[in-house]
């Protein structure tokens, strides 16, 4: 099973990228592909730029990567209560290829931040809007206080309750 995982951020040391990759590793039999949004950078979307550029190669590549996956794990970084500009821009361009960005793929939607809110606001936005973009959301989870709950050295959750909750929803991707 091909699982595409990424942090919805362009931070090089993204905590959400770490969480997404770890969550994908909990999916039985997963062959994991991790995307870095820096490989999909484009000018900020505008109708005029769309007229000029059409469907940029980066957006086409992102759409194709989703299409080729059997399941998708996204962990959302929160900037000022919402999506990072990097993710939102890529998403906007991709939605102009096809509004069904997620192509009915089974998905886990996660989020984390160093603070106690665990990027819950952006996760709520992502979960609420998912049906409009053909996402088959199998589960969602916010991990608060990332550095208290995630063992960065060994790249795994150290909070047993959260680990169980994540394993439970990861199992739903193959059910
Ligand atoms: C501009 C900016 C705004 C932020 N706003 C929030 C926020 O609203 N909520 C939050 O929990 N963390 C916020 N943070 C902290 C991020 O959660 C933190 O930088 C985290 O590492 C981002 O995830 P990433 O490492 O996966 O990119 C903000 C950080 C920046 C730089």
UniProtKB/TrEMBL annotation:
Its cofactor is FMN. Residues 1-138 form the NADPH-dependent FMN reductase-like domain. Gene3D superfamilies: 3.40.50.360. InterPro entries: Flavoprotein-like_sf (IPR029039), FMN_Rdtase-like_dom (IPR005025), NAD(P)H-dep_reductase (IPR050712). It holds the Pfam family FMN_red. Keywords: Flavoprotein, FMN. It comes from the Bacteria. SUPFAM superfamilies: Flavoproteins. This is FMN reductase. The lineage of its organism: Bacteria, Pseudomonadati, Pseudomonadota, Gammaproteobacteria, Alteromonadales.
